[in-house]
């Protein structure tokens, strides 16, 4: 369904007119997510100004107009209209619009989902040096979405983007080096790129760097620094990192052992449907680590984890043999409640 486009300017909440310079500044803030659109008067006037320039043929304005339609800034949100303006700018060989249009085709926003067409536009933008597009093209080659899978080509595009400072591409390149995908396995090189991405704030890289430091893969073991990176990634609500941080507290690696803290982090990860955390909570409840010992609760968590982990099913069955009939009935009831609330990842 196409949203209705606003045809009248939004009311100005000031007695004085707002200059075009101020409006442009307000738009820049909005596009970076700094201010809620509803708090800024005059953004619709900026939309009209942008549309006028777009109609005249400015590829930059056409792309910016697409952003306004896509995000609903100064106009009713309309993903189909956004895609149409991205297409105009993309056909004018404007790389940011080519990347934006590729995202539309990849996800089916405003256009029919078409992975092959997405790759076509990712490639055009990537060849212009757009780091976002280079990373996305690398991911397409890595996964075989929209193009034949080619690990070597994936690494080539990840490297281009990573060398331009793109944190997600740095993380992807590190992963390739760590696991030997499209390049010879090189843990040291993996850690180098994980560190670059982690320093730039990429949560996945922060967690992976922590794992390397904890295990001594590609670098000297350093549990204290591992905890620092786990904590940074956990603050971004990455469940892998929350579970890893909980495990550090459970074992007393890099921090003093604290079962209460371990359970707190396992629970945060578990609430995000992270199976390993489900299993860890089952262990804590079975043994009374940080929580009262409770075989019923342990069974319920093992049962939930069993949908994703074979060893969890074995642990559940072994625990069941030690339980009374009443305990098993209560545990199965509790397990159903957990499954209904959390379900599968």
Describe the structure.
With 345 residues, the chain is mainly α. The chain has a domain at 22-28 and 38-128: Serine Threonine Protein Phosphatase 5, Tetratricopeptide repeat (Alpha Horseshoe), CATH 1.25.40.10. It is 68% helix and 0% strand. It contains 18 helices and no strands. The chain has helices at residues 20-31, 43-56, 59-71, 79-91, 95-107, 115-127, 131-143, 151-163, 167-179, 187-199, 203-215, 223-235, 239-251, 259-270, 275-287, 295-305, 310-320, 325-342. α5 runs antiparallel to α6, α9 (167-179) packs antiparallel against α10 and α14 runs antiparallel to α15. The model is unreliable at 1-40 (pLDDT under 50).
Structure characteristics:
single chain, mainly alpha, Serine Threonine Protein Phosphatase 5, Tetratricopeptide repeat, globular
Describe the structure concisely for a colleague.
This protein is mainly alpha-helical and 345 residues long. It has helices at 20-31, 43-56, 59-71, 79-91, 95-107, 115-127, 131-143, 151-163, 167-179, 187-199, 203-215, 223-235, 239-251, 259-270, 275-287, 295-305, 310-320, 325-342. 68% of the residues lie in helices and 0% in strands.
């Amino acid at each position: 369904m196409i949203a209705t486009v606003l045809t009248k300017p939004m009311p100005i909440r000031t007695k004085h007119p707002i200059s075009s310079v101020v409006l442009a500044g307000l738009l820049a803030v909005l596009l970076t997510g700094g201010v809620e659109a509803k708090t800024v008067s005059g953004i619709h006037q900026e939309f009209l100004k942008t549309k006028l320039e777009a109609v005249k043929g400015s590829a930059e304005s056409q792309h910016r107009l697409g952003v306004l339609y896509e995000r609903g800034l100064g106009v009713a949100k309309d993903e189909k209209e956004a895609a149409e303006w991205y297409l105009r700018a993309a056909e004018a060989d404007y790389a940011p619009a080519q990347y934006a249009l590729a995202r539309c085709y990849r996800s089916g926003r405003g256009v029919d989902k078409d992975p092959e067409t997405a790759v076509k536009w990712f490639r055009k933008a990537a060849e212009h040096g757009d780091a976002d597009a280079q990373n996305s093209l690398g991911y397409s080659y890595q996964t075989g979405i929209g193009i034949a899978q080619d690990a070597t080509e994936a690494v080539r595009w990840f490297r281009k983007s990573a060398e331009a400072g793109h944190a997600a591409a740095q993380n992807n390149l590190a992963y390739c080096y760590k696991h030997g995908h499209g390049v010879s396995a090189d843990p040291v090189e993996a850690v180098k790129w994980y560190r670059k991405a982690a320093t730039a704030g990429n949560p996945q890289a922060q967690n992976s760097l922590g794992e390397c430091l904890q295990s001594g893969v590609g670098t000297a073991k350093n549990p204290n620094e591992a905890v620092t990176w786990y904590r940074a990634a956990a603050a971004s609500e990455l469940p892998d990192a929350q579970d890893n941080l909980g495990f550090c507290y459970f074992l007393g690696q890099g921090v003093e052992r604290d079962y209460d803290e371990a359970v707190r982090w396992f629970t945060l990860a578990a609430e995000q449907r992270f199976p390993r955390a489900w299993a860890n909570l089952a262990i804590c409840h079975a043994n009374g680590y940080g929580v009262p010992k409770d075989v019923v609760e342990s069974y319920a968590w093992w049962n939930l984890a069993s949908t994703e982990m074979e060893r969890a099913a074995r642990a559940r069955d072994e625990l069941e043999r030690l339980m009374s009939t009443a305990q098993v009935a209560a545990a199965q009831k509790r397990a159903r409640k957990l499954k209904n609330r959390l379900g599968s990842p």
